[in-house]
Amino acid sequence: MVKHILFWALKPEKKQDVEEIVTELNWKFQNMQPQIKGLLKAEVGANYNGGEFDFALYTEFVDRVSETAYQGHPEHVKIKEYIKAITVGKVCVDYEC
């Protein structure tokens, strides 16, 4: 199993919209999930502890092949473009377990 976790910092003018953004992204990921073979779980959450990052994405995949397919999937690419437009920084961690 592969776990893919990302943390993003919103642009200052978007910080007040974090809950709306998280709701929208959860909806997008849930609708995309059946289209990605091997994507087992996808969830987005707002960070309530403060700090540098405003929200996170947690995903689980059957294997690295599934994660690679997800990265290039057209629906995922659209989501990445949306997130890139509203954020100023990110951190990503991928690991197998």
Automatic annotation (TrEMBL):
Stress-response A/B barrel domain: residues covered: 2-95
Database matches in InterPro entries: Dabb, Dimeric_a/b-barrel
Protein name: Stress responsive A/B Barrel Domain protein
